[in-house]
Batch of 4 targets.
Target 1
Amino acid sequence: MGKRGRGGGQRVMKRDFRQQRDNNWTEQRRRDGDQWATPTHENADFEEYYKMQGIVPEGEWDAFMETLRKPLPTTFRINGRGRFAADLRDRLQQDFFSQFSENMEVEGEPLEAPRTLPWYPDALGWHMAFSRAQLRKLPILKQVHELIIRENDAGAITRQEAVSMIPPLLLDVQAHHRVLDTCAAPGSKTAQILEMLHQGAGTPSGIVIANDSDAQRCNLLTHQTKRMCSPALMVVNHDATQLPILRDFQQKQAYKFDRILCDVPCSGDGTLRKAPDIWRRWSEKNGNGLHPLQLRIALHSAQMLKIGGRMVYSTCTFNPVEDEAVVAELLRKSESSLVLLDVSQELPELKRVPGLSKWLVKSNGELFPSWEEAEARQAHAKLTRSMFAESDISALHLERCMRLLPHHGDTGGFFVAVLQKVAELPQSAFVAAPKKESKQAKAPAQNGAKKLAEAAAWSAPAAQPPPSQNRQQPGAGGYDSALREQTAMEEVTDMAYEAAGHTQNFAEEIEDKDIPAATESACEAAAAVEGVFQVLSGGEEIAQEEKRAAAAAPGAAEDEDEKEAPEGTREKPEWGSIRGGGARGRSTGGRWRGVDPIVPFTDAEQLTSIRDFYGLAPSLKMEEQLISRSQSDDRKPKRLSFVSEGIRDLLMMDENEQLKITSTGLKLFERQDAKDARTSCLYRIAQEGLPMLLPAMTKQLVFVTAQELLRLLIENSIALPQDMRLPMETLTNPAALQNGSGGDEGKAAAAEGEAADGAQPPAKKAKTEGPAEERRERVPWSDPETLRQLDSIVGGCCVCTLRNEEAAALGFSAADGVAEGALAAHAPLAISCWRGRASVNHMVARPEAAQLAEKLRAALLKRDGPAPEQASEQPAAMEAEALPAEIAA
Ligand SMILES: C[S@@+](CC[C@H](N)C(=O)[O-])C[C@H]1O[C@@H](n2cnc3c(N)ncnc32)[C@H](O)[C@@H]1O
């Protein structure tokens, strides 16, 4: 079959794969004739290959294989650091894990007690291994299982495979770092990195750029990281070998990163325990096919790293061709500008084996120790020299790499190398070594040695593309194009197709049989193998798109020579004049088709209105840090998001719209569209923006008791007393809303009862006013202090938050009431609400409201003990079923 035909098939496979990717990997069964057969956990090629490689220490092979055949335990980490994370850890320990004992059994089957991951800092990483049968039979396991799903959805914990937590820990991220996560979707490591960035108080000066070459997976990445509520994150969609290198106007040089994670696409056999279908699809060809891409990603990343910066290269495969071979070639090409760090003293409790210094490469069914031997046997056609352990290998200290073996810690398999940049990479690093004499000789001659040299030159440190290249490629892909020509990508193509075939079938059989939430582990396993697609379809599509975008860019046809400012002279552009990568709805056209452009929000009238309405302190620099994604100018933007100073600066540096931005910024405000809910402010507060807004808010705040907050969360709406209800005229006369309660008029209107509460946002109203709601007897607000505050705010959006002293007593804030950090999991207990004509309703999504209610109930239970009617019940944290049906759901 020709390549064109197969490419079409690839697209279908890719779509099928994506549609199912959120599902959990379970034990797969495949149709075998008319029989359903459970896949065997055997693969002779796999065993032979890895036995020969010597990846497992002497005498441990059986234990290695036995563990690989078992399902993977559940692991999770408690988000964030500090007191809040420790509190949650202690609560889980007291309420749940203390109920397990050492020698527990379920119907004769031993049950392993949950335990902490010994190497994870502050005992915040946990491991639990129990079977499905045990889960069904032991109620406490079911409760723990549900708790983990709930806390994961709420952003308090993250379910993540244990070994996948290691790269971010070794990246050693600090709050001021610029961090790049090159292959980031679905985003479990990005989330971990973000937490590290946010470990101090306030908004960090550093940023995280999370990239993935697959646009749909970028959306998944956005979704996964949304719960982190970080204004310091930007998600971009590029081929990591062509990520644009921007010019840093502050440093007057290329924009570089302090930390880079290259968690590259790989063949994924380290995930066999959660993706058992790999057993029957495993082939060394997958790894051989991915090696060139992995190397190119690592090389380009190294170029984007600051001198002194740290880069982690990781895979979830045991395969040395994708692991040590890539690291070795990277070190070789760097000519000592990169150093492989000895991290044996970091995470000391983590059991690991050192990297290999010799390995074999398989081709045509034979294993070869060197390129020369493969060449002599005519078996080198689909190989590159860089896949082999060369004679210089001992000088590279590959023993500093680490391989995580499943039987050592009951985990998946993983590989990690930590590198530090000590000097700029030589230009020669970006010119590929000859692969095969015959083709090699042709390539420069056919394509032009000058072009190659030019491409390599402009990829040098801090250099900008020469004008001609710049017009062709918005990204710093100069060396890449050279590399493409020289590495004879078309030969890798076949291997990639084969690898992709493996992925397709793998994907086709995914079924969701277990956990309802999209699980991180499923996505990770999927990601590991899906990367294969990027070699061809994804990568090529992106390259095409980047070319198209460059051509479509305003002024692309002009002489770039005249436009390029000499190094070091670039001025900082005006905030209001920038446009972040996107084209949709722009009359001038933008760079990235189908992407809404990022537009600074500078509407002075609206900004003043928002600032006045919520009494926002000047410390919240909305005028310079608020953005929207607008399709056209004729309507006010639907959402306003806040970006950190670091992201704002990056947006300004990206004045040529080189970045294809999927998402950035923390949503603070949403346009209030309800026609019957007019207030003087067009924008209401988005719940996720509260951690950022609350410290700056001085108006529309209502400090309520814990019991009131709990009631509001459970009942959705609490009525105002009759004498505080607003008159009907406020529905059409916004000015009247500004004057607070309606006095006598209010009383008159109140006689019309609840159904007349037109100021409630219609969408919410539909949700909250079911027949059961109407039947429920509604006790109005009654605490005198709360009533005083409710009377002092104006109708429309407001925030109900726990009173400081209660927040401190219940452990939700420091004694001074100030939240630690901006992450959602550590945000003060506050909810975005709507003060309507006759009631106050919350505007929080149901799952989040349920989670907040449970958190509050647990804290109250801890402080006050069980309420009389609850005294005989289980701890509050376990009793979602005791909540009203709409919350428990
Ligand atoms: C192993 S997964 C990453 C998992 C992720 N780091 C996490 O922890 O959730 C590899 C990812 O690389 C992406 N990918 C594949 N080829 C790529 C390329 N050329 N550039 C950027 N991303 C790529 C895939 O879409 C996939 O999401």
Note: The radius of gyration is 29 Å.
Target 2
Amino acid sequence: MSNEALSFTSPGAIALEAIGLSKRFGSFKALDDVSLKVPAGEFHALLGENGAGKSTLVKCLMGFHRADEGAVLLDGREVSVRNPREAQGLGLGMVYQHFTLVPSLTAAENLVIARRDAPAVIDWAAERRRIEAFLDRTPFRVPLDRRVGALSAGERQKLEILKLLYLDQRFMILDEPTSVLTPAEADEILGHLKAMTERGEITVLMITHKFREVQAFADAVTVLRRGRVVGGGRGLSTREMATMMVGEAAATAGASGKAALPERRAMPASVGEPALELAGLFAEDDDGRPALRGVSLKVAAGEIVGIAGVSGNGQGALVETCCGQRPLSSGQMFVNGRDFLPTRRAFDAAGLFVVPEEPLKNAAVAGMSVADNIVFRRFEKPPLSRRGWWLDRRAIRAAGRELMTRFRVASPSPDTPIGALSGGNVQRAVLARELSAEPIAVLIVANPCFGLDFASAAEIRARIVAARNAGAAVLLISEDLDEVLDLSDTVAVISHGQIAYKAPIAEVDRGTIGIHFAGGSEGEQGAPLG
Ligand SMILES: Nc1ncnc2c1ncn2[C@@H]1O[C@H](COP(=O)(O)OP(=O)(O)OP(=O)(O)O)[C@@H](O)[C@H]1O
């Protein structure tokens, strides 16, 4: 396979240098003269706020995009990477935010089919020996015979990395590799990678928004801002990195992620009907297995109930059933004491708003413009439409533009298809649509800050608390335990499709939550808390 191409690089870690890379999308310059040097065996972090150009840069390195200008050197020799296959042949591999494994195959089968030189007729016994010998040389352990669909998120992420190592990728690009992991899983995986860099076996370039990980694992950082390199180096403090990313004033407001939270107004003392009540929800996943097994929960007006848990314990199904995207096998949902059936009309009548996770997939139309996506829920109402059917394009554009400014959605124009925005900006646009409505009686949000840079995360969390202060009942479902602990009045843990624990925030301690997390998803060894 790649041996020929790899022959000019040294046997261990590969050094990479990008010189003066520029990339335009139409008239928009996503990368402007970006240079980056990652010596062999370095663990290098790539930072930048949402839309700064991080993904564009690594996509140019991996051959998904062709840079308009600039050069890439591997071990000092210029290479031309025209597509990801060529990147693979040169020893460049990438771990994506989403998993790329085949869920119905076992871990071992996934490794075999990943090989570019996999034979048409596979000698499974020989392959097995080869994989076991390979695994002996790596620190990562995964159950080889288990179907990937039954692996925990941590095990899947290890397998993604093993796949690259199996393919002899010795320059590894990681795009927010820990976003689906518990802090302990993240530390384990990054710790192994760090040790491998120290032994000179691989080089790592990691995109992350987590300063803690940068401080703990990275040897050096490069910071991008609006498509340009604005700083970097070794031994930088969190504050120095934050300032490079967003500028002095914003860094002061948001570096801790907590500073910007508005003061909480006391919850109304009279506890009448809960604004949202879930009563014994049962639902199945796509394979007909139980996903929700009797979820019951009440959320009062002016309260945030935060549901924590290890990824894959029913969070997705819970949000989907509340949105009407997954049928209930049994159970009932009440809003303000009335039976609620999730139809478009019922959402508006009840003042119920939902921000699901992966908003581009679940809450936006990728090919439609940013402005249209933002005003989606108000199309047929004045002033965006007259007599309920005549759409006023100019008013839609103006309303879209106004919300884009308020929620700081960075887009070349209101007419740009939302699918072309960076992940963080899609998130902001969907939040702009759901959080700008008045009044919000019930707000359901899932992983609202997933993939957001620290300043944006602080801003979004502040908006959620503001909605609560204004009287909304908020159901927050988040895999970020710190987020749940920072925002919630009441904390619950979901495990195996059931609410395993629930307590007011004042009575919650991380140890108790850890015990309830530990019943986590299949294959999970418990999910210790960081
Ligand atoms: N295919 C494309 N067409 C048009 N514009 C694009 C395209 N891909 C990226 N962009 C724009 O380039 C800019 C940089 O996007 P990029 O995805 O590289 O940012 P990022 O730093 O990775 O952000 P995030 O942290 O939110 O993932 C954004 O303004 C984005 O809208």
Note: Residues 247 and 418 are 26 Å apart (CA to CA).
Target 3
Amino acid sequence: MSSMNKLSATIRTFHSSAARFKKNVEFTAVRYPYLKRGNYSFLSDRHLGFFQSILSPHQVLTDEINDLSGYNVDWMHSVRGSSRLVLRPKTTEEVGAILQYCNAQNIAVCPQGGNTGLVGGSVPVFDEVIMSLGLMDAVISVDELSGIAIVQAGCVLEKLETILHLNNLTLPLDLGAKGSCQIGGNVATNAGGIRLLRYGNLHGSVLGLTAVLANGQIMDCLSTNKKDNTGYDLKQLFIGSEGTLGVVTQVALHCPSKPTSVQVGFFGINSFDNVLETLRLSKQNLGEILSSCELIDQSSLECVTSQLKLKSPDLVNHFPFYILLETSGSNADHDAEKLNSLLEMLLKNGTIVDGTIAVDSTQATNLWTLRERIAEALASEGYVYKYDVSVPIRQFYQLVDVMRARLEKLPIRCCGYGHLGDGNLHLNITSQEYSSELLNKIEPFVYDWVSRQRGSVSAEHGLGLKKRDYIEYTKSPTSVHWMRRMKKLFDPNNILNPYKIFPGTLNE
Ligand SMILES: O=C(O)CC[C@@H](O)C(=O)O
Ligand SMILES: [Zn+2]
């Protein structure tokens, strides 16, 4: 059976190849014609001179074609800003000096990690100065005994995982974008991913962090204590703040022990009731070794196999639903036996119709590839309307059915997949190209539907620019009011990632 090391070495690099896809064109001005640039200073030679005086030449990028284009556009090629400057600090102090200056000079700043976000949160909307954390990529310390790693914000997730594995530890989060996303960006967006079912989200795994506030002040919350009840836990404010309250520069992460046995199963299922029963029985029978439970519907599997020329697993038939299960444990024989007897039981009682268990790391990788490259496959198909929602588990697939009925006869593909174990559905609708008519058929209907289930209109991708107008479909007006107050308190001049999270302007 496969080991985690082998698995990790081969899986998931979709962002590097997908970056070449240019089909998903929409761009900010088309979809957001009502957006107005805030009253910020324009970049002048004097400003540039200041940044050049405190940073080295390779930390100040100004060449529009050769340097800036990749920073100005998001991975989906759907939001594009027109920044004229990328700053690449190497230390927390440099971040502090930059922000202090920008705050004093009324210059807007867009903090950026690996730029793998899906809601337009990590790219400028107008000409905000981009602050890229990519040069701050050091792993400062890893302690196997306590399971604590301290790392700079710009460290790419995959690099961090490789180093953790050498210390018999692993990351509490895993994403398809791990080859290019950065831990600071993950923390700033409270990224979820495929292990959340097992290890919970970053609000639990981040023990401490350093954040630089809008005025340049360095807030040292870099605690490594697992227990600390000395008043308010301020670090939590920065986790999921999408760079609007401060710039995260260092993170102390609690890392679980590295599993030595990883098993992957793939099941074909005839009805959504049986999908739910599979989840229930998997939880009951696998217990704590269950580390992922992902749903893929037939439409998603069809898309990923046809667009990326991948082979479907060897099952007897096509099914409306597939579940990908992963276990992570420390005893290969025990874990394999558990998964095999689950498979037998599910087949025998008719909950699943067919299933396969990976016999080696190549097969496991191939199964994961089918799940993790769906986003890339969708992007290569045409324009993608993306929804990342939390819904009560029993209603997980209803929204997909409702949307198919609503968009019947239109030339679209409607896919439902995602993190079933967490109630996090990825609903994606593709069409040949962007159409505002189609968009109006989908939104705000989708958000309204989710709101009526008391779900979340953004489960793990954040609000960024694309979802900001829908915040009140999930958060109460009182919550939004206090969020705005908090933003005003931390960033009174609204220089940090403006136009994100909140609809309108902060003065409204
Ligand atoms: O593109 C999407 O909708 C989901 C992307 C990512 O969160 C995933 O789980 O693959
Ligand atoms: Zn996801």
Note: Residues 1-20 have pLDDT under 50 and may be disordered.
Target 4
Amino acid sequence: MDTHSSHLAASNRSRSSQSPSPSHSASASATSSIHKRKLASEDHAPPFPPSSFSADTRDGALTSNDDLESISARGGGADSDSDDESDALVDDDEEDFDNDSSMRNFTAARLDNSGASAVARNSKLKTENATVKNESSDGAKDGGGTTGTGAVGPTVAGGSVPGIMVKEDATKIFTENIQTSGAYSAREESLKREEEAGRLKFVCLSNDGIDEHMVWLVGLKNIFARQLPNMPKEYIVRLVMDRSHKSVMVIRRNHVVGGITYRPYVSQRFGEIAFCAITADEQVKGYGTRLMNHLKQHARDVDGLTHFLTYADNNAVGYFIKQGFTKEIHLEKDRWHGYIKDYDGGILMECRIDPKLPYTDLSTMIRCQRQAIDEKIRELSNCHIVYPGIDFQKKEAGVPKKIIKVEDIPGLREAGWTPDQWGHSRFGALSASTDSGRKHLTAFMRVLLKCMHDHVDAWPFKEPVDARDVPDYYDIIKDPMDLKTMLKRVESEQYYVTFEMFVADAKRMFANARTYNSPDTIYYKCSTRLEAHFQSKVQSGLQAGAKIQQ
Ligand SMILES: CC(=O)SCCNC(=O)CCNC(=O)[C@H](O)C(C)(C)COP(=O)(O)OP(=O)(O)OC[C@H]1O[C@@H](n2cnc3c(N)ncnc32)[C@H](O)[C@@H]1OP(=O)(O)O
């Protein structure tokens, strides 16, 4: 026995615990209230446009101050009660979105990092499975000029090899793993479906005086005012209503969910993102990403821009990085310097707009790429083929009931195994690959076991630990080992086909004792001393064997 009940709560014992990962949802919401982004100017209503460029020359159409003031007055009027109104609008929308259960499930799962809601997590998996199924069926429908599923593994085409099946779920496992890291496609596809169903739209507007547009712009201004509390409200109004700025907005059932206000510097072919926000209870659901994708597509196709620059709030840097922004500015300085306004507490970030990417349909592109990669893997590997299991019933001490020839194990040869690898040992002769090798190996292991058994510190290891004496032992030690079990394995002459396997069992036996027991215990000390003894015997035995062979 390698333990004692008085050491049940050994101090060196540690259990892994699942600590909740930080939730973006939490951080995103938190950032709302501690927003630090400020204009560099001390003045809370800085001159606009910034003095570094002339107001009306570059990209035209700056609204006059009169315009701004009048709009400001309208905005101001709305402003007094607009925050509430804005929130009310969002609340009203909740019902409308209930149709999209996949989105809800997904969101619930993402927001639940506490581990409390197993239901939500299951929903997430279901959603992802559903997505994968769609992918497969789409792929099948398309044909897509690619080789079909059945054509990939030559040995299994048409299921012609008896007892072998293609693991259809391999695709699922592969894609599920990808999707859990970001779940980008799932969210994008879900929002795209909402758009196609007409429940969601993305518009790009500037102050054009049309009533409906003005209502949306005021709604967006209110979201900015709430989500960017350190930004002077007057400044937000000025930029949102300024006619040289444009705003891409998410509109759900005629209400604004969020948006990005930017200024396109058409002659310089870059745009400056002034504000970006999603209303508090809709954050971290993918709107920010889809919004940015719409913005990039619009800015490229309509404004002819190649880059975006923004002073990202410290708390939002993570979001911008996920949208392809970097802190390194590659755009030539003379293209942007003097055009954009400095902000305190913000980090200048850049994003290059790809000239070709279908930004609003990235999920389809990703799906096609994933499918192509998966098919390529199937061409190059057999990992999708699942062979029937082998009948590997064990007797006592884990010794197999029936000897199975290695070459009879289904799939082993197909995986690249060759008979010369059988029983291969770095200890040369100490392997069971030949009759003489097996005898030699068994004899050596017997000697080593006897050496251990006769040692004064062997007493805790002679028998398996009795769970009646140490009730929690097998909760902690999942792979128990003892000298008696090792002896049974040696005497079976089937178990240890290499010397390494024997040494591994011995090492596990010693390690178990040190895992369960604390260093000040006799069990721990016996384990250390017996292991040293074992190692010295192995060493001298190997050296003697080597000499005999010479
Ligand atoms: C120039 C400026 O305006 S800087 C100020 C930016 N605005 C704010 O900080 C206001 C408060 N925050 C918000 O309004 C929103 O959270 C936004 C605009 C930052 C992001 O919009 P969301 O709809 O929440 O983003 P979305 O759901 O698409 O998330 C995309 C990814 O970014 C991550 N993310 C979102 N917000 C943040 C954040 N603040 N920090 C780090 N990562 C974030 C999400 O977890 C998600 O990651 P994943 O794809 O690995 O799952």
Note: The chain has two domains: 24-97+199-357, 398-549.
